Predict the structure.
Amino acid sequence: MKMSKRLESLQPYLFVEIGRKIAEKKAKGEEVISFGIGDPDIPTPSHILKRLCQAAQDPANHRYPESAGLPELRKTIAEWYKKRFDVSLDADREVLPLVGSKEGVAHIAWCFIDPGDIALVPDPAYPVYSVGTMLAGGEPYYMPLAAENDFLPNLDTIPAHVLEKAKLLWINYPNNPTGAVADIDFFNRVVKFAQQHDLAVCHDAPYSEVVFDSYQPVSFLQAEGAKEVGIEFHSLSKSYNLTGWRIGMAVGNAEMIDALRRVKSNLDSGVPQAIQYAAIEALTGPQDCIQEHNAIYQRRRDLVVDMLNSIGLEAKPPKASLYVWAKVPQGYTSVEFTNDLLEKVGVVVTPGTGYGSSGEGYIRVSLTIPDAGLVKGLSRLAGWRSTKKIAW
Ligand SMILES: Cc1ncc(COP(=O)(O)O)c(C=O)c1O
């Protein structure tokens, strides 16, 4: 068998590796508490599940869906964007349902990237931006996200020869893994930069509804001229605990949406219709579940941040997202500290370097752990002690 060179360039997906380590420990009879993946532990709200089950019973939903999605879902998404962000969208030309946003995030590269082209990708970042680019034969150029710049990329430092080959610019706020947020001034700057350098912007925004302390993120599409240069990816996974059902959307620039629809219609057959009806229910039904979930995450966030600081890590409470981004204690690399936690106290966190080399010195702690596990995990963390000798 001769596999493709493309496949050789693919590292195992970050959480597959972490899952393997957890399985090894469990096989030895050890209990592991995981703050790893950002997968909501709270079940899908019952009114959404009820609609899903009802729609699953209808034979009309047993057949191939249209790649473009149900017109009623596209209309619902457009209305939600208007209500939530005051952004007007043409439901037929500027909205595309996705089989979870990961799928669209990966496939958009096929619309823009030819071998030798560049995509500008934040570092650290959700790995799919660079993997999608590489699978299409392109090259990611990494834009470091540093604490001193509030984890925003410094666009002015990107060299001219990179910009000449760059076609796509990725941004993601509220950010995974840093938990950082961006305001409208940043998005306005991104639009200008994209216009100057003929870039298509992809803003990935699955955490815009996972917010704390009354913080309200803005949409990239609220920036002046954003729809002329870019699209926003969105997901129902994190806000409505629908990760297992796979539904997200891309919205914005009609040409980009049309290109993505063309690629997708050749590769997948759309989102199962029962799930599309569940998504309509999620976006139009009672919204109290979002506040309820956010209150739970906020309480967990505060407990996690306090505990991490008390054992010598530096962590600030994020305003949004499902993650606490914390500096590892002196003397450790991200991977060393992650392994040390697993070995000494049986707690799993994600090393910052799993999201790119600028994640060195950090770990990501996910808040999607049930309360009983959280309490146990925190008490284990309290018992962690550094065994590193610090040279002063
Ligand atoms: C930044 C970011 N984008 C996209 C996704 C994918 O979400 P989904 O495919 O469930 O919509 C995730 C999931 O963790 C994410 O963290």
